[in-house]
């Protein structure tokens, strides 16, 4: 039986009120938090943990399933249990919508993926006119029909985000915005060419557990929440010209904001 | 047997591949999303759903436990299953750290709670000197020992947030910042009086499932993730003067940011 690296995991506390399988989960969690098991590393096997703690295999499995439900580890069938990677993509909101990037014709997603050393990809693109929901209507003003642009973003083949942009039809219909490829700089560059110079964006960030269709679309592991981000773009006349509704795999992102103190 | 309000829930699709308990969960979820069951409303009882769909009580229970794991409903023992409230507190980051609020001596949390019509409260306050973790040291520069200020925030008696501020000892020791009550305007007002005029804040936002101690501290319902927010305050000389590590109940908050388009 292989021994564990010494000092990484301690002994159980027989005097503790805390159930044994929770004590084992606590020790493993602490070892992960402190970097003693690194991202992507394989945890000790069930047999090793059983031996080390002197408990049943069922107890060890219960401990591991706690960590799995917390999104800290994932079990790969027949291979073992691995420490899940921490969010690799830093999404810097204040930089992401800077006009200079639009001018260069690079999408914010491409810039972020490149910074994370990942291969960006977009699929499931769908552009259509549809009835607005009450929530989108409330944000866009009174638009009853909207142009909806749906797409999924992937990094290195893994889905990380599903986004839908909604635009008032009177702005978007019969323009490049309604084309599958709206051209360099994306729809924000086209909005500005159409006379809607952008002034600011509002972003609202929530987190929740995914619905089943989101688990499927983003291929989410168990215990991984989603970040639900709703962004509204305003032009210099104060009109809301786009609402972008984005559902992101929470394990793929850290959202970064810079706020002035004045 | 009480009938369901007509039209709120439809029939099952016998030709679908989708398991019956999932179809029922889908219908209930859609009815909640569309506001046919409002926040705080009681869902139809198990008996009513059993009758309506012509399925076993176990099937209905499986459907309800899906919605519970998604954080959409909560089961109150002996009373029924209720639609959970959506995030009530709008945390507007760009306004929250404005100097004018510090000058008025109101904490950002108090302002937000009042806007949400809730009674704010702070407990579990702890102020102490301690060794820094590698992560905090990396953010604060080289500080090996820090002043840590821990506190829990509650609204209407419900815990919503647990926050720890870390400050370099050479700045904070033997100042009002090390007192339980640092005085009007809080530690940011004191930092500025000590000559560290604030220039900007960086905020990093992640979401994940809670660890067991976080479930306890924030009294989280099942299926509720946490938002983990780490904010660093910089003075006009570019020095990091505080790191605030905050864990928030995701069902209590929507984070709002305003971003310039220029």
TrEMBL record, chains A, B:
- Source domain of life is Bacteria
Instruction: List keywords of the entry alphabetically.
Output: DNA-binding, Transcription, Transcription regulation
GO molecular function annotations of the record: DNA binding; DNA-binding transcription factor activity
Per the record's keyword annotation, is S-adenosyl-L-methionine included, yes or no?
no
The HTH gntR-type domain covers which part of the protein? 18-86
What SUPFAM superfamilies has UniProt attached to this entry? Chorismate lyase-like (SSF64288), Winged helix' DNA-binding domain (SSF46785)
Q: What Gene3D superfamilies has UniProt attached to this entry? A: Chorismate lyase-like, Winged helix-like DNA-binding domain superfamily/Winged helix DNA-binding domain
Tell me which Gene Ontology terms the entry assigns under biological process: negative regulation of DNA-templated transcription
Tell me which InterPro entries the record gives. Answer: Bact_HTH_transcr_reg, Chorismate_lyase_/UTRA_dom_sf, Tscrpt_reg_HTH_GntR, UTRA, WH-like_DNA-bd_sf, WH_DNA-bd_sf
- Membrane-spanning parts: none
Name of the protein: GntR family transcriptional regulator
Organism field = Streptomyces abyssalis
